[in-house]
Amino acid sequence: QQLLTSRDVAAVLGVSLRTVERMIPDEEITPVRLRGWSVRFRMEDVREVVRNGVRKWGRNAALAENPKEAA
Of residues 56 and 9, which shows the higher confidence score? Predict the structure, then answer.
């Protein structure tokens, strides 16, 4: 199970880091909370966000196979 950072998710979705941070309390994406403030996201959850086309920003979101290359 691949875990992504907030920056990785932003790159995959083509949005800003702040948008990813807003998605958490809006329950548009579910984080995996690690120690302290650290959060990660499951790749499958990110794919689900892309498939569902979140109304606020995701209509044209494209999922990169390698999130590190999407940056």
Answer: 9
Three-state DSSP state, 66? coil
Three-state DSSP class for residue 16:
coil
Using pLDDT thresholds of 50, 70 and 90, give the confidence band for residue 50: confident
CB 12 within 8 A of CB 29: no
> Residue 67: is it exposed, middle or buried by C-beta count within 10 angstroms (0-12/13-18/19+)?
buried
Task: Judge contact between 43 and 2, C-beta under 8 A.
Answer: yes
Output the pTM of the full model. Answer: 0.70
DSSP reduced 3-state for 19: helix
